[in-house]
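FYI - complex with glutamic acid, inputs then prediction.
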Amino acid sequence: MNYKDIAELLFPSVNGTIADLEKEFPIRNLKKEACVTRFAPSPTGFLHIGSLYVSLISSTLAKQSDGVFYLRIEDTDKKREVEGGVSQIINTLKDYKIIFDEGAIDENKELGEYGPYHQSKRKRIYQTCAKELVSHGLAYPCFCTTEELDQNRILQEQHKEAIGYYGKFAKCRDLTLETIKEKLNRGETFVIRYNSFLDKTPTAICNDLVKGKIEFPTNQSDTIILKSGGLPTYHFAHIVDDHFMRTTHVIRGDEWLSSYPVHEQLFRAIGFALPNYIHIAPIMKNDGNSKRKLSKRKDSEAIVSYYNELGYPIESVLDYLMNIANSSFEDWRKNNPLANLIDFKFKISNLPKAGALFDLIKLNSVSKNIISNFTEEECLNRIKTWSEKYEPEFYDYIQNNEEVFKKSIPLWKGNQKRPRKDIAKWQDLTLNLSYLYKPSNAIEDYELDEFLSEQKANIFIDKYKKIIDFSFDQTQWFNQIKELASQLNYCCDIKEYKKNPSEYEGSIADMCALLRIILTGKKDGPDLYSLLQLMGLDLFNKRVACFKNNFA
Ligand code: GLU
């Protein structure tokens, strides 16, 4: 068979060779240990939290080894593409400070010598490689229609045979030059398939750097490498791009592991060295009694923008993801609360083999720590930026009441000596600070109970509002509270109270709790004197009125 003529017939305008491409994209001049990694999203819009996780791992590996991290846009499936999908992904990654050394850094701008970095612009490169495979009889054009392929599948299912394009089902494997010419003249469309018949290697071995050695039977179905428009399938693009972009570590979701035999086969056929592989276990979620992957369709927390909308600082999300990636991170962070994430010595071998469960409680706890370490100014700036975009009413409140708002920051954030961990995300503030932000709104869930009752609260506040004095210092204020406690039969000596609780309305702590509930709705919260100072008479009156309305 004259394979060269077939190749010429199929790709008349392709002049270069693989050897030319090797020269065009030379081995990178980097030190031996440098990792070249990539993030290779398809522009289908939203960025999945799992993709942020994989790109965090990839960029960390590249940065820590003085390597290169690049962005490749996998846009060969025009049907699935979403308008603006590329910019959305690029901008979200930028927000998360995932910085690329090269690649499709902007919708229209590329950086680096190994491009183009949009697969849709790399047709020449894929076709050069495919032509060479055809010219060696390793690939061939397939003209089968969807109906014919469906027919194959039905027969295979009926006879319980493996599904695929092989053996007697591979009708186009040995078409002659003449037949191919005729079909082309008739305008029949074709794809290019790799000819797996020639592969006699029994097994495909994947030495995954995390999952270890995994053995598969060699692929025996003729994989499509070029689709009918001449663009590659994922499988072929992966081989060609990761080779010519000189990727050293392919880090991708482990849903690709089952395609590994196809990839290994193609790498071998074309004569390219295999890269290192790290197949990342997905982030999972409990669903009834079983676990499943976080799904873009079902779970709002699967999409990165969800965290931005709620106002999680990006540092919190990144720290949380690094926690999943390497369990030793948690201790490191405890000892280095202010250190830059990149200074953590990330280890490939510590990546989890199985999918970690997404844990919102853990994320919140990580985030509370991060927020408690921000300066007050940082908090203010971030809250403003967040609320302007996502909570305009809260933004207006801050703009109009900046001084009071600023004073509230140490109340919920604490200070270095005594950090408070009330806030996991900026949206929490809209509830947590409702006593400032929406003072006249009724709080439906005042934390009253049988003991700290509405009746006790009313008796207390009716007296207290008559004597409250905002000019008192803390000692004067507390002395007045103590005096009132004695009048109302609340015990100021906790030991004494514990001995004879039935003789009192409660302790002084209970009386303070009543005041706090009236003002904020909650039993716990910041220091009461500071809270009153922050509120001032006007807000105090509003809150008391609000409490009264609620129990009218
Ligand atoms: N475009 C593929 C995806 O989005 C990339 C997989 C890979 O990293 O190789 O799943």
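The longest strand covers residues 203-208. Residues 528-550 form the longest helix (23 residues).
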